[in-house]
Amino acid sequence: MALKGCYLLVKYLVFLMNLIFWLTGLLILVLSLWMLTDPTFYVRMAQDESNYYAGVYLLLSVGLLLFIVGFLGCCGAYRESRNTLTLFFCFLLIVLVAQISAVVWGYANLDQLESLIRSNVASTVRHEYGVISSRTFTFDSIQEGLRCCGANGPSDWAESTFNNKPEKDALGLAISSTPSSYNIPLSCCSATTEVCKTVTKVAYSMPISPSIYHDGCSEKLLETLRQYMNVFIGILATML
């Protein structure tokens, strides 16, 4: 009787563990689909488009694999099917090897990844904001969501193409002049719209308003990336 009770306990513990796998896979699938369909997703700005989509599809594959592993494990534990459980453990081994490889690769290339993020954010601020509408929309979302401004701070906007549009006279000819001020996007401002319209026009000789976010978005994105990596490592440690 005691052995039967222990057997049932182990059976339902295995079922519960696989239910967690199944839910984790479902969560990763939803996250991957969100990253593919939401143009404002933060990490998109940190990478080239090709690298971004390659990473998302890889994440989608891992989520799908975990989803299948969890389903097979639940079915095998509940129905006590030896073949299903064997298939489950094979898939589980593949998932664990893939996750360990991903963590090792991430830490081995962390410096390169951080450098890539910094250079791409700086390039967006300097050359693409106000020129490419999708990048402009995404970076506005980043600045509002992460409460940051520019790549390293609000003064970055002084060197941006966002401010390097030459003024034109009545005939449409460009007028060459030395600007005395520069504009900061409204998404950098935490105050009301009316106040923001005033404080986002910054004179070179004046300090930047406290209503403007002073932290750079490069560091904020890196903090977000590190948090995601820590969560991922925590999930991996739990599975091991």
From TrEMBL:
Membrane topology qualifier: Multi-pass membrane protein
Phylogenetic lineage: Eukaryota, Metazoa, Ecdysozoa, Arthropoda, Hexapoda
The record, for Pfam families, names: Tetraspanin
What does the UniProt keyword field contain? Membrane, Transmembrane, Transmembrane helix
Looking at the keywords, is Transmembrane helix present?
Answer: yes
GO cellular component terms, A-Z: plasma membrane
Top-level taxon in the UniProt lineage: Eukaryota
Q: What is this protein called?
A: Tetraspanin
| Residue spans crossing the bilayer | 12-36, 56-78, 85-108
Q: Membrane as a keyword? A: yes
Family that this chain belongs to: Belongs to the tetraspanin (TM4SF) family.
Location within or outside the cell: Membrane
